[in-house]
UniProtKB/TrEMBL annotation:
It comes from Fistulifera solaris. Residues 243-331 are annotated as: Disordered. The chain crosses the membrane at residues 103-124, 155-180. Residues 253-265 have a biased composition (Basic and acidic residues). Keywords: Membrane, Signal, Transmembrane, Transmembrane helix. It comes from the Eukaryota. Residues 1-24 form the signal peptide. This is Uncharacterized protein.
Length: 354
């Protein structure tokens, strides 16, 4: 019998659904609506009719709070039956109303959640993809850290990685608790101290004595989050130092045991890497494509300095510039030519007026 992954998942779901499991929490703990704790067992009219008058009086006195005087006034058994049936019906209706109220509240909350899920499905899908990518990156990083600690035989680094993993879980728990605390309450949230900041109390006067002074911002989760990040940074730096020290120790031990040929080969590889870096550095130097005359100082500097080479040759026409050896043509400008044509037209008009 070939069992694929889908078949295994189906079997597990069927096993979970058929077995009766008691959970430590239910989804109603997060929604906030609870069913009545005890199921009330009430008597019907037929069951009350079959009871004796003494049993009816005893049940009225024990379960419904009838006094001896009230029971003494009821002489007929029919009145006792009607009184007990009425009290039992009241309890049954009260229990049914409570159940209906809880079910209606759950139905409304479930409908709202489903509508939000349908509307925000593209956003949720994108968030899931981002979370999956971040999870893969995080797991690869942790796997690399553990593998590196195992290669270097650094037990202190392994301890640091474990502490950082625990801190990551605590930070995720704290973040989820803070986000969910805006919409729900639960006893499974991260325990954070209450450190409220109330600006109204600092203002003094009537505002400090008004109800507005009771409103504030709880900075307890912020302090806990900052403390976790600080400890995480310290542990991470300490783990890095331990890994670096282990790497240096392992490298020193490897060099002590190497032969002369291995040492010479290592130095040759190091020299080759240095030469390659120098060659790459020289290749990245940009070559100047400017004319050599353009690199000379301007006329104002020449006037101050006295005699010196002429930066630009005046023996060329308007279309060229540079030294006598090389000619560097200037780019033609259509806008400049149009401007000259307009200028010639205006000059001809003035000549005609004269």
């Amino acid at each position: 019998m070939n069992l694929s992954i889908k078949n295994v998942i189906r079997l597990l779901l069927a096993l979970v659904l058929t077995c009766q499991i008691s959970y430590a929490w239910e989804w109603s703990d997060f929604v906030g609506s609870h069913m009545p704790s005890t199921v009330v067992a009430t008597l019907s009219l037929e069951q009350v009719s079959d009871m004796r008058a003494r049993d009816i009086k005893r049940r009225l006195a024990r379960n419904h709070g009838y006094s001896a005087e009230e029971l003494a006034r009821i002489l007929d058994k029919k009145e006792l039956i009607h009184a007990l049936a009425f009290e039992e019906e009241k309890i049954r209706l009260k229990y049914e109303d409570e159940v209906k109220r809880v079910l209606l509240k759950r139905g409304i909350i479930t409908a709202i959640i489903l509508v939000l899920v349908i509307i925000c499905w593209p956003l949720l899908q994108h968030a899931y993809e981002v979370a999956s990518v971040n999870f893969v990156v995080y797991t690869d990083r942790k796997r690399h850290e553990v593998h590196r600690c195992w290669e270097l035989k650094s037990y202190a680094g392994m301890v640091g990685c474990m502490i950082m993993f625990v801190l990551d879980l605590m930070q995720a728990w704290l973040t989820a608790s803070i986000l969910l605390s805006w919409v729900m309450r639960s006893k499974y949230f991260f325990p954070t101290p209450s450190l409220p900041l109330r600006p109204g109390q600092l203002m003094g006067g009537e505002i400090a004595r008004s109800p507005m002074a009771n409103y504030g911002l709880n900075v307890g989760p912020m302090v806990v989050s900052w403390g976790m990040r600080f400890v995480y940074g310290r542990i991470e730096s300490w783990t890095g130092r331990e890994l670096s020290r282990a790497h240096q120790t392992q490298r020193r031990a490897a060099r002590e045991n190497e032969s002369e040929q291995e040492r010479a080969a290592r130095k040759a590889r190091k020299q080759a890497r240095r030469e390659e870096r120098e060659r790459q550095a020289t290749m990245h130097v940009p070559n100047s494509k400017l004319p050599p005359d353009w690199m000379q100082p301007n006329n104002t500097d020449l006037d101050k300095q006295g005699d010196g080479p002429v930066p630009f040759s005046t023996a060329h026409n308007d279309q060229t510039i540079g030294s006598e050896d090389k000619m560097y043509p200037l780019p033609n400008s259509k806008e400049h030519e149009e401007f000259l044509e307009q200028l010639d037209c205006h000059i001809s008009e003035f000549d005609e007026l004269d």
